[in-house]
Design brief:
The chain has about 140 residues and is an alpha+beta fold. The chain contains three helices and four strands. A two-stranded antiparallel ribbon has the order 1-2. It has a two-stranded antiparallel sheet with strand order 3-4. A hairpin with a 2-residue loop joins β1 and β2. The chain is extended.
């Protein structure tokens, strides 16, 4: 994953300001019929070694209540952070909707009216659909 991502508008602004720019576009490459996104051997070995503790699928419920429930205490006068969502391709949007429906059906997430929000990113995992990650809202 790239260490620094920026919007196209920000990139264009930086190029106009400095008269220089570098844009990299990554594409999947096939190597002797083997896709680059396939799981590396080292990871396969680790998955096999710990298969007894790594579930194939998520449980159908949240973990049990603990003796101490954590909460986020807001400082007086603080305002919720919110970042606009990233634009998604039709495939990414479909994958995200499927992932949300799946997690809702399992009861692992629920609808929220929270004023806090953060965009999500997709990462290739060598299997479909891609993993969906929420970015920290800062």
């Amino acid at each position: 994953m790239l260490p620094y991502l920026e919007t196209l508008a920000r990139f264009e602004k930086d190029v106009k300001r400095t008269d220089t720019g570098f844009l990299a576009i990554a594409t999947e490459v096939e190597n002797d019929g083997e896709k680059a996104s396939e799981t590396p051997e080292k990871i396969k070995e680790l998955l096999k070694e710990f298969q007894d503790i790594l579930p194939d699928d998520l449980p159908n419920e949240l973990p049990p209540y603990r003796t101490h429930q954590h909460e986020i205490v807001e400082e007086p006068g603080s305002k919720p952070t919110f970042r606009a969502p990233y634009r998604l391709s039709p495939t990414e949007l479909t994958d995200m909707k499927k992932q949300i429906e799946y997690l809702l059906a399992k009861g692992l997430i629920r609808p929220s009216t929270s004023p806090y929000g953060a965009p999500v990113l997709f990462t290739e995992t060598g299997r479909k659909p891609a993993h969906v990650h929420r970015l920290p809202s800062s």
